[in-house]
Task: structure prediction
Amino acid sequence: MIKVSVIVAVYNTAPYLRQCLDSLMRQSLRDIEVLCVDDGSSDSSPAILRAYAERDARIKPTFLKENMGLAHARNVALAQATGEYVCFLDSDDWFADNALEKVYKAFTADIDTVLFHLVLHYEDGKEQDFQMQPFDTLSGEEAFKESLTWQIHGVYAIRNTIHQAFPYDETQKTYTDENVTHIHYLRSRKVALCSGTYFYRQRSSSVTHQVSGQRFDFLLANERLHQQLLSLRVSDEIIAFYETKRWLNLVGLYFFYYRHRRLLSPSDRRRGLDIMHHVWATINLSLVRPSLRRKFGYCPLRRSWLLFRLQEELYFWLRGIIKGNE
Result:
């Protein structure tokens, strides 16, 4: 029986792909399958996948004709997954040799999700543990709340049955993978932590490190998760907790706009303002924490979008004078 299915979505990562695949072939847990989906790469990634598949039958590649995005590529692999548990490994990252054995042994009858020990690997070779409070187990709801602010990370293995019930969200190309993480935690009975190490490469070319109009898609992904939570009929407490988080994210994205608008194209600036205006007008403010709504810089000023924008401009200008906008 396959114990762990590993999903590897590949897109133009030839310089790193061999290290990723080598780490999987060296795993001390042998009963695994490696489901690689090439998402229309234009570099030598497909050739590398074919060569490794010839060497190890556990590596099962699929080749998409065009780039469809991370969520779609992972879902193609998920549809093939036969393991008891499922995890992902990004194609520019790698596992310690015993990572999958340790994550597999951490599962018990009532633990549905197990987080890896996450090590951030920087371009200069430096490494650092992801900073979070250690824990034995969390309830699904506790893990959901802590993941919204990444007090716990989102690199884990999960029961196949839960992942099949909640596959990756393909409504947009960026950020919706985070939504799936939040839902997986929420739907888990218990979430545990293991010492199996995942090495997470920090690349300055990633969307989250760039000044790009795509950053505003984060608010659209937030809205999508809000809709999913409503459809799952979660508690009123969870909905209120998330509406407060959405409001904080709106102010945070306005800060991104304030700092970087000169680097954005006119069309990206307009699109960003349109998205923020939409979010400002549609968040259920009665659910947002009252103390936050009364705080300068976070006051909704619902009657006027212009006044809200003026508040943000003044707030971030003053903050920059007092302590710097870093």
